[in-house]
Every structure is written in structure tokens, then in C-alpha cells.
User: Fold this.
Amino acid sequence: MNAAPKWFLPVAVIALLWNLLGCMAYLADVRITPEQLAQMSEQQQALYASRPAWAVAATALAVWGGAAGCLGLILRRRWAMPLLVVSLLGVIAQDIGLFVLSDAAALAGNVVYVLQGLVLAIAFALVGLARRAGGAGWLR
Assistant:
């Protein structure tokens, strides 16, 4: 196993923190109570009602797979790559549910494009990082 550059560990830690924020957001989302839902605007309630279960499951794969994959990067393990690929596929499936099969942008506003674009870009970047780390011998 080759020595990883000095920037690798801090980047992996920041990526783990990013994904843990996603895990917290996911848990807050799926644990929402009927009372909390009733306090939301009609548009937000419609957004929640329009989400298929598979899209919520894809979000779970995205955030938990991403967190586990980033932990794998920190531990410098090869199993980080397939987990980060699962995470990326989860983000893509989530985006299909949000943008292709529903009218989420109209319900949530244009900011959802920016936020989901950022999430997608980071997921691609993490797969690229894992690929580079594997190819350079930084993972065992």
C-alpha cells in the first residue's frame, strides 16, 4: 500500500461529515410526525405526499452508503469504492424520483436544482476520489 497524500485524510473526513449531515437529514425526514407535517405549507405537504417509497429508499442508500464509503476512505479500505458507487446510484435514483417522475421543482422551488446538483456533484467526486485512491495504491 502506497502512502496517501497529506490532503487525502482531511478530504475523507470532510466527506464523512457531509454524508453524516445527509444521514441526519434523512432521519429527520422519515421521522416526521403527522403534527409536524400538518404545520407545513400545502406545497411542502404535497411534496411529501408525492414521493414514492422507492425514492425515499434511494435516499437511504445514498446517505448511508456515502457515510460508510467515506469511513472506508478514512480507513483506507478498498470496499469504500463499491459503497460510494451505491451512494451515487442512490442519488441518481432519488433525482429521477424528484425531477423526472414528480413535479418536485415546482413544489419546492428552483433551489432544489442547486442543492441536488451539489449533492450529485459531490457523489461523483467521491467515486472519483475512491477510484483514484484505489488506482494509486492508497487503499488496501
